[in-house]
Amino acid sequence: MSNYTIKVYPDPVLRKIADEVHEINEGTRALIKDMFEIMEEEGGIGLAAPQVGISKRIIVLSLKEKNFDKMALINPVIVSGSKETAFVEEGCLSIPGINADVQRSTKLIARGLTRSGKMVEITASNLLTRVLLHEIDHLDGVLFIDRLSDKEKKKVEGDLQALYQQYSTVTP
Ligand code: CO
Fold first, then answer.
1. Which of 20, 59, 63, 118 is positioned for an S-S bond with 135, CB 3.0–4.6 A?
2. Structure confidence at residue 66 (pLDDT)
3. How many Å lie between the centroid of ligand 1 and the Cα of residue 170?
């Protein structure tokens, strides 16, 4: 069992700008290990630390692509994104049951630190691009529902409202 649980919309931690990681230590690696565990349990392909309640700039990915089947990136940044975009359906472990088409770049270059503190530059296309953009958005308090067209927004409005009522904490 992991030490963390998935934070669900509208949990305020999902809206915070996450802090840079200044030192990669045992605690960082333990957190990453837990994040992989949760992502696997929940069947996700990407997870950002704020989604487990930790407001730090850490993401993990699990794609079928070589080298990205179990990748963690610390302090990731987008260096550049393509002008070419595509609309692809997305979901999020923190917004259960809701899917919608999101317009994003199809290619990008990103940079970040690995678990061992090595700086890597990633040239990504398609799904990897999308997952990186989605997860890095989380570090800035941005959710995919913020990026929907008015038409897509309308489609998910009711479900989102239901989640809001189910998960918002009401102080008596
Ligand atoms: Co997400």
1. 59
2. 77
3. 24
Which ranges constitute the DSSP H helices of 17-149? 26-42, 126-139
In this prediction, residue 72 carries a pLDDT of 97
119 strand-pairing partners: 113
The DSSP output letter for 13 is G
Q: Which residue carries 């030192």 as its tokens?
A: 23
Tokens representing 99 are 């899917």
Query: Which is catalytic among the residues 40, 89, 135, 152?
Result: 135
Q: H or E element: which one contains 151?
A: helix 150-167
- C-alpha 122/C-alpha 78 separation (Å) is 9
Q: What is the model's pLDDT at position 168?
A: 86
CA distance 116 to 103: 33
Ligand 1 center to residue 44 CA distance, Å? 9
Distances (CA, A) of 38 to 21, 54, 168, 170: 21, 14, 22, 27
Q: How many C-beta atoms surround the C-beta of residue 146 within 10 A?
A: 11
Q: Which protein residues have their CB within 5 A of the ion that is ligand 1?
A: 92
Compute the mean pLDDT over every residue in the chain, rounded to the nearest whole number.
95
pLDDT top residue among 162 and 65:
162
pLDDT of residue 148: 98
